[in-house]
Amino acid sequence: MTTGRREVNDVPLPRLHLLGDAALLCDLPAPATLAQQQRIWALAEHAREWPGVGETLPGMNNLTLTFDPTAIDLDTLTARVLEAWPKLSAGAVEGRLVEIPVAYGGEHGPDLADVAAHTGFTPAEVVRRHTAAEYVVYLLGFLPGFSFMGGLPPELATPRRAEPRLAVPARSVGIGGEQTGIYPLVSPGGWQLIGRTPLEMFDPGAEPPTLLRPGDRVRFVAESVQT
């Protein structure tokens, strides 16, 4: 099951796919844009109020809605999505501005020199450009509290490491392709590590347990730089 390819305010209608018996995937075509992601967040907030809908799970350029088939049937849920989509406001989700202090380079950012070599900048210039940008949290995934952010200056894009690390330290700030992010927990990973923050990104005992959430704007602040 899929929808047509019409557009609403330059944002295409989602393609709808049934996942199993109790989940509906609302998928937008690539590339992912902030306007499309904002509309996904707005749909997620809207759908939380619908009877029969369980979890609303925003992804990159998509949204999964779990539902109780005994409370709402697929045709009704589909109709609600398509009816709501043109009425959604892309600016309905107002994210916070969160500043993330970072110790760049040295033992905290062992790949800073490699990113500098790839981009042709000095390590100090990489840090300057990384901290000058404002980022938007598109989604949380991969690990609890791991935020995929848009907004990395394109000149800082750097491929992932050829050999991933078996254990990336928690709170490491990295660059992976065209994105930047923070590892909340010790984990295998292949992103280029340029620094580390003292802030906990995931605390299962806190409410909410994640420091960042979709829609938040992020600024990195250099606490120290070792080049």
Give the structure's gist in a few sentences:
The protein has two domains: 15-87, 2-Layer Sandwich (Gyrase A, domain 2), CATH 3.30.1360.40; 97-225, Cyclophilin (Beta Barrel), CATH 2.40.100.
How would you portray this structure in words?
This protein is α+β, with helices and mostly antiparallel strands and 227 residues long. It has 2 domains: 73 residues, Gyrase A, domain 2; 129 residues, Cyclophilin (Beta Barrel). The protein contains 4 helices and 15 strands. The strands form 4 sheets. The protein has a 7-stranded mixed beta sheet with strand order 9-8-15-7-14-11-12. Strand 11 and strand 12 form a beta hairpin. The mean pLDDT is 91. InterPro entries: CT_C_D, Cyclophilin-like_dom_sf, PxpB. It comes from Variovorax guangxiensis. Pfam families: CT_C_D.
Summarize the topology.
Blueprint: E1 7-8, E2 11-12, E3 15-19, E4 23-27, H1 34-47, E5 53-59, E6 62-67, H2 74-84, E7 97-105, H3 112-119, H4 123-132, E8 135-140, E9 147-150, E10 165-168, E11 172-176, E12 179-182, E13 187-189, E14 192-196, E15 217-226
Parallel strand pairs: 7-15
Antiparallel strand pairs: 1-2, 3-4, 4-6, 5-6, 7-14, 8-9, 8-15, 10-13, 11-12, 11-14
Characteristics:
4 helices, Gyrase A, domain 2, Cyclophilin, 227 residues, four-stranded antiparallel sheet, hydrolase activity, 2 domains, alpha+beta, CT_C_D, seven-stranded mixed sheet
Topology, number of strands: 15
**CATH level-four homologous superfamily name of the largest domain:** Cyclophilin-like
- The multimeric state of the shown protein is single chain
Structural class: alpha+beta
